[in-house]
Amino acid sequence: GLEETICSMRTHENIDDPARADVYKPNLGRVTSVNSLTLPILQFVRLSATRGIIQGNAMVLPKYNMNANEILYCTRGQARIQVVNDNGQNVLDQQVQKGQLVVIPQGFAYVVQSQNNFEWISFKTNADAMISTLVGRTSALRALPLEVLTNAYQISLEEARRIKFNTLETTLTHARSGQQQLIDQIVEA
Amino acid sequence: RQSLGVPPQLRNECNLDNLDVLQATETIKSEAGQIEYWDHNHPQIRCAGVSVSRLVIEQGGLYLPTFFSSPKISYVVQGPYLFSQSINFIGCAETFMDSQPMQGQQQGQGQQGQQGQQGQQGQQGQQQQQGQQGFSDMHQKVEHVRHGDVIAITPGSTHWIYNTGDQPLVIISLLDISNNQNQLDRNPRVFRLAGNNPQGGFGGPQQQQPQQNMLNGFDPQVLAQALKIDVRLAQKLQNKQDNRGNIVHVRGPFQVARPPIRQSYESEKWRHPRGPPQSPQDN
């Protein structure tokens, strides 16, 4: 039976092909994952991988790994990465560029802002690694009732509503330009 | 092995020649309750590879959204007949939808959970105004839980609890930190989506510093960009000036969409079986 099963097991899967993308936004980029469902041998090695390519001015929405550690390696470009630990402290806020690597422990929240067509490969220490987003249409914040948000953050219903519903994307979004941020700050002041 | 510099987490930690009865060793107080912890560094607890805590939520208290890197199992030791909790599973749709316009927070007190049923009379004018603003909500499933229930929570799943009753709610919980789904160290780690813990955490030395919520660690401008909100609102999410802890009093009514409770549960008649049919309603 081994010849028909183990010996003939598929051991590789291409995740660079744009046609194979799991998340795709023409002006922002794409993200592709391979796990035990797409490549069954990963069930044996208990690992998985994610390939990401985002263009300048794109952002990977804040998220965390639910059941795996992640080792992110930059293959091209440059990005700003922020990582937050379980104490709510920023433990990394740096530029990452080609050839550099970032370890993101399980549960730690992180955000990636592309600065120059950022490309990366992430290895995850679970064959069925899962992420949970903090922001966006399928995020933890979106899943909470407005009343929980208003009491948790001491904000109004309208503010809670903006927090829940303003971002419709799930994975990638546009980061506003510095000029737009400046305008916002002036308006607020 | 110790002399060879074997890391503490790899040493044989099970010295079981004598066992003790263990009491909670640390209490962290919040505005509307407290969390008591057993020392997870105690040799017996360390050997079992777990962390144990007891959560006490006062009436009207809300345990703010939290998740762990380990699987968790809880038991409702004492409490009101029913309370609300929600465990949010990533990627699942918001299947609970509020089709009624919500009332403003400034209206009424103590309306708990009978959303759309109570407290609406005499407030139609304001409701209409808010209805025009589209105040409706949708969120993931909210469940009724009661005394005696066991609750299982998977790693990374955010959950919150609201005590709808008129007495304190007590929940004992075990965190399986040696479970292979926890890929961090053997320290219980609490990830807070909201709230904070000014007193510092429990147990391990790395947890003794004040704990903030996760959003606190991001640059407010980045947070504002991700959420498409202004920076000032993003700063509010960071709870920097908030000293209420992780269990807070709910101000005003708590109006989340929840299905009605079965009448037999409400009245607890199921506890007292009736005799032969005596009314037209009985079969």
What distinguishing features does this structure have?
heterodimer, A: 189 residues, alpha+beta, globular, B: alpha+beta, 12% helix, 24% strand
What coarse outline of chain A follows from CA principal-axis ratios? globular
Q: End-to-end distance of chain B, in Å?
A: 72 Å
Amino- and carboxy-terminal Cα gap of chain A: 72 Å
Mean pLDDT of chain B: 76
Number of strand segments of chain A: 10
Helix content of chain A: 10-25%
SSE order of chain A? EEHEEEEEEEHHHEH
| Helix share bin of chain B | 10-25%
Structural class based on helices, strands and sheet pairing of chain A: alpha+beta
The low-confidence parts of chain A are none
Please give the order of strands in the largest beta sheet of chain B: 1-2-3-12-5-10
Structural class of chain B: alpha+beta
- Radius of gyration of chain B, in angstroms, nearest whole number: 22 Å
Query: Largest sheet of chain B, if any?
Result: 6 strands, antiparallel
β-strand amount of chain B: 15-25%
Query: What is the molecular shape of chain B?
Result: globular
> Number of DSSP strands of chain B?
14
Could you tell me which chain pair has the largest interface and how many residues each side has?
A: A-B, 69 and 79 residues
Outline the biggest β-sheet of chain A: 10 strands, antiparallel
Structural summary, described in words:
The complex is a heterodimer of chains A (189) and B (283). Chain A is an alpha+beta fold and 189 residues long. Chain A has five helices and ten strands. In chain A, helix 3 packs across helix 4. The radius of gyration of chain A is 19 Å and the shape is globular. Chain B has 283 residues and is an alpha+beta fold. Chain B is 12% helix and 24% strand. In chain B, strand 1 and strand 2 form a beta hairpin.
